[in-house]
Design a protein that fits this description.
Elements (H helix, E strand, L loop, with lengths): L5 H22 L8 E5 L23 E5 L32 E7 L11 E6 L3 E7 H7 L5 H5 L5 E13 L8 E10 L4 E9 L2 E9 L1
Antiparallel strand pairs: 1-3, 2-5, 3-4, 4-6, 5-6, 6-7, 7-8, 8-9
């Protein structure tokens, strides 16, 4: 079990307060809807996904494509198209794949009735795998991208985010969809990287990838 630091507890408390306020404002009523909170991974194994790579929302600049892994890359099912994001066919096995993140999920009613959480806040465990490949290599492998194809790309540079933070309001569950990722760390070749991305209301608005 992950030990919660004082700073993590403050973030947890502020995040939950923000969700309660948002729900109350959204209903236009002082009565707050019932919500369910789950701690990842203690109370939730996370969603059936491996990495932040999704068709129509590829985090790329004119040079690099970034892929952050929520689960250990070695656990990705061979032949699975990472652009599909969700691997429903690998349930329940996927939930046994080690997570590289921890955090909170806020559900309106609970997992029995909702399609997904209204909001989630994830933090890296200290070494979130982030892979970078050249846009030309990535485009050359389309229309699908498997873990084997990604690993075989000549331009692949593997790294680990020593800082990783993600805020997500997912489609289908949140009133207004949003994603923000902020991370930085080191590549295996000794270079440092910064990777940030923002999606708002179904549009990828900002991607920043710097490798030095």
């Amino acid at each position: 079990m992950l030990r919660k630091t004082a700073s993590y507890r403050r973030v947890e408390a502020n995040f939950c307060k923000a969700v309660l306020v948002a729900v109350a404002l959204g209903t236009g009523s002082p009565a707050v809807e019932a919500i369910e909170r789950y701690v990842v991974p203690d109370e939730s194994a996370g969603g059936p996904f491996y990495a932040r790579l999704e068709r129509g929302f590829v985090h790329m600049t004119d040079q690099w494509v970034a892929v952050a892994f929520y689960r250990e890359p070695r656990c990705v099912r061979a032949g699975f198209n990472l652009l599909n994001f969700f691997d429903f066919a690998n349930i329940p096995v996927i939930f046994g794949c080690p997570l590289t993140v921890h955090g909170l999920e806020i559900w309106k009613n609970g997992v029995a009735t909702d399609s997904g959480p209204m909001q989630s806040k994830l933090f890296g465990n200290g070494a979130v795998p982030v892979w970078f490949v050249a846009v030309s290599d990535f485009n050359g492998a389309l229309p699908g991208i498997t873990i084997g194809e990604l690993a075989a790309m000549p331009s692949l540079r593997k790294g680990y985010a020593t800082f990783f933070e993600e805020t997500l309001h997912p489609a289908g569950a949140a009133r207004q969809t949003m994603l923000h990722i902020s991370s930085y760390g080191w590549l295996e070749d000794g270079a440092s990287f910064t990777y940030q991305a923002t999606e708002a209301r179904g549009v990828l608005t900002t991607v920043r990838i710097e490798i030095k």
